C-alpha cells in the first residue's frame, strides 16, 4: 500500500503543512536559519543534490548560487509542484527516485554537496541506507535537518496548527503517526552520531535551529 502522505493525499487543496506562513514562530525561525546556512555553505558549488526535494521549497534560495541543482523525491504530487518551480531555473533538474538507491543513478562523488532537509531523514525506513547512498555520490558535505528530541510539545503544536491529524503519539520514542500515513521520528545528537557511524560518515558540525530542529553536517569517514 502506498504511503498516502508522501503520495500527496494531504497535498490536494491548500495544505497548511506546506505553507510556512502558517507555521508556529519557532518553525519559521528554523526555516529562515536553514536558508541562511545552506546559502552560505553551497554558494559557488558545481553540483548540489536535494534528497527529498518535496515541493521545491529551497530551489529559489539555492539554485541561483550554484551551477547545477538536482532535486529528487518519490512523491508524485509534490514533485509536480517542484517541477513547476524548477521551470523558472535553467540549472535545475527534478527526478523521481528512491532515496535508498541514489548511488545507482549517479556517479561516485558526483555532487559537491547533498542535503536532506525538513526531517526527510526522519520519515524514511532506513536512515543509514539513505546516508550511505549520499556518502557515495557526495564529494564534500552532506547537510541534514531533523526534528530535535525533547521538542514533543512543539511538534504536537506544529501538527495541530497546520492541520495534520495524529493517529498515535509514541511519547517515549517521540514518534508521531498520522492518519494519512506519516511516521515522523526525532533525534538527539547521539542518535545522529550512531547513524553516521553506521553510514561510514563523520559529524563535522551540529547546530540547533529555531530551538526545534537539529542540523548536522557530515563528511565521508
The helix content, as a percent range, equals: 25-40%
Strand arrangement, largest sheet? 3-2-1-4-5-10-9
Number of strands: 10
Q: What would the average pLDDT be, to the nearest integer?
A: 92
What's the short version?
The protein is of the alpha/beta class and 221 residues long.
Can you give a write-up of this model?
- The chain is an alpha/beta fold and 221 residues long.
- The chain has one domain: Rossmann fold (3-Layer(aba) Sandwich).
- Helix content is 30%, strand content 27%.
- The protein is built from six helices and ten strands, in the order αβαβαββαβαβββαββ.
- A seven-stranded mixed β-sheet has the order 3-2-1-4-5-10-9, with helices on both faces. A three-stranded antiparallel β-sheet has the order 6-7-8, with no helix packed on it.
- α4 (127-137) packs across α6.
Summarize this structure as a short list of keywords or feature phrases:
globular, 221 residues, 27% strand, 30% helix, alpha/beta, Rossmann fold, 3-stranded antiparallel beta sheet
